[in-house]
Write a structure and sequence with these properties.
The protein is of the alpha/beta class. Helix content is 43%, strand content 14%. Helix 4 runs parallel beside helix 5. The chain is globular and about 50 Å long.
Length: 256
């Protein structure tokens, strides 16, 4: 039985990815900040597969590293790492967003991902097998006003994935960047500071991706033969072309 380590598994794409791998019989390590969600997921998955949860704030990199180093023997050999945990703390001009919130995005989307990757990648290189999946974003390439820091962190994730591949040549460790467009998750609720109406309007009149669509792409990339590395998957809803402004919205659906 193979093992997958999924960060940010308590909501959205991370939760859907955990369900996908559990359904396919993989041993799970799931991380997230919300203990109640982790407990619920353990109860959901434990009847199907072995599951180990880690309550963690990925911004606290020292604690994250200690948790990885202290994994039980049964879970210590990680075959696939899914770096899903991410944050868009705010949308707006850089000078109008509190510095702490800007730093939170950097600490979560860059530093937390780096700490996790560095320590799990070491075991993969030693065993000459493994797969790193980084959940980036189309925002990393197709920017829009008010997204400077968030898009910048996702550009880092997208480019890190590309740059890791030559660094890992000869190790048999694969790296894939999954870059979704608009996905309907709690992401927009967090970004709008819990304003449900504002979050809902983002998807009004159009059909966004579902977390399960991204989870399917993750699993598909992982299940390719060992000599095949899917470098990047960019996924948009049919109602969205490149960028945040190329969106088809059905006026009739908006007024319904």
């Amino acid at each position: 039985m193979k093992t997958v380590y999924i960060t940010g598994a308590t909501a959205g794409i991370g939760m859907a990815t955990a369900r996908k791998f559990a359904g396919e019989g993989w041993r799970l390590i799931i991380t997230g900040r919300r203990a109640d969600r982790l407990q619920q997921l353990e109860e959901e998955f434990s009847s199907k597969v072995p599951v180990f949860s880690l309550q963690q704030d990925i911004r606290r990199t020292d604690e994250v590293i200690k948790q990885i180093q202290a994994l039980p023997a049964e879970f210590s050999q990680i075959d696939v790492l899914v770096n899903n945990a991410g944050l868009a703390a705010s949308k707006g001009w850089v000078d109008n967003i509190p510095l702490e919130e800007l730093f939170d995005m950097v600490d979560t989307n860059i530093k937390g991902l780096l700490a996790t990757t560095r320590h799990i990648m070491a075991g993969m290189k030693q065993r000459k097998a493994g797969h790193i999946i980084n959940i980036g974003s189309t925002s990393g390439a197709h920017v829009y006003p008010g997204s400077a820091v968030y898009a910048g962190t996702k550009a880092f994730v997208n480019h890190l994935s590309t740059c890791l591949r030559p660094d890992l040549l000869g190790s048999n460790v694969r790296v894939t960047s999954i870059e979704p467009g608009m996905v309907e998750t709690e992401f927009s609720i967090v970004r709008s500071k819990g304003d449900l109406e504002t979050a809902k309007k983002l998807y009004e009149g159009m059909r966004p991706l579902k977390p399960e669509n991204v989870a399917d792409a993750v699993f598909w990339a992982v299940m390719q033969p060992p000599h095949v590395n899917v470098s990047k998957i960019e996924i948009f809803p049919t109602d969205q072309a490149h960028g945040a402004f190329n969106i088809y919205r059905d006026d009739q659906a908006k007024s319904a």
